[in-house]
Amino acid sequence: MPLTLPILDTPINNNIIVQDDFMPDDYCDYLIHEMTDISSYFPWHWGEVLPQEHANMQGVDITCPQVRNWQFSHVFWLYGNENSPYCHLIQPLINQINPDVLYRVKANIAPWEETQVTHGFHTDESYAGLTSVYYTNTNNGATVFRTVNEEGEYEYTEVESKRNRLVTFDNRIMHSGKTQNDAQFRVVLAINYFKHSVFFR
After folding, report:
1. pLDDT at residue 61, as a whole number
2. Which residue in 78, 133, 135, 163 has its CB near the most CB atoms, within 10 A?
3. CATH number of the domain to which 185 belongs
């Protein structure tokens, strides 16, 4: 099938799809072990959740103090290419999602903090595409979605972090991560991709 590139004027799809038990249990166990067990030496890198220099850009709304705008991340896939020697860890998940074009895959880990924080709302891309967030462990963190109703008012929807859950949405929807304070860590994988069957039916 020829590659059809997404176009800017494709209408935004505001549906949020939640799929529980997305992968076999043993895969979820394996993945979380490989990324968090001290014996695996999996590399995490500190960085801002939303870069402060992007605070005034369209599609970015930082809602937390700068001192709490941080997390550890690992980028598996970037700009359509492998970016990590650990890509084998995510391949079964990518196979199950079955994207036509894979843009980026990034894992984020938020260590325990006494109080929860919603870092800030953003869109992943300006063009039509999908984001899937895969939750590896259950905690009281969440992904928060912000949409605008017909009266021009913000409406918020939360999807809780539940082990082995996948949430999928149009990557132009404003959303934010929300940290946890009932577990040692919150680990999610954010997958950005395009799938023709969703946008071209």
Report:
1. 80
2. 135
3. 2.60.120.620
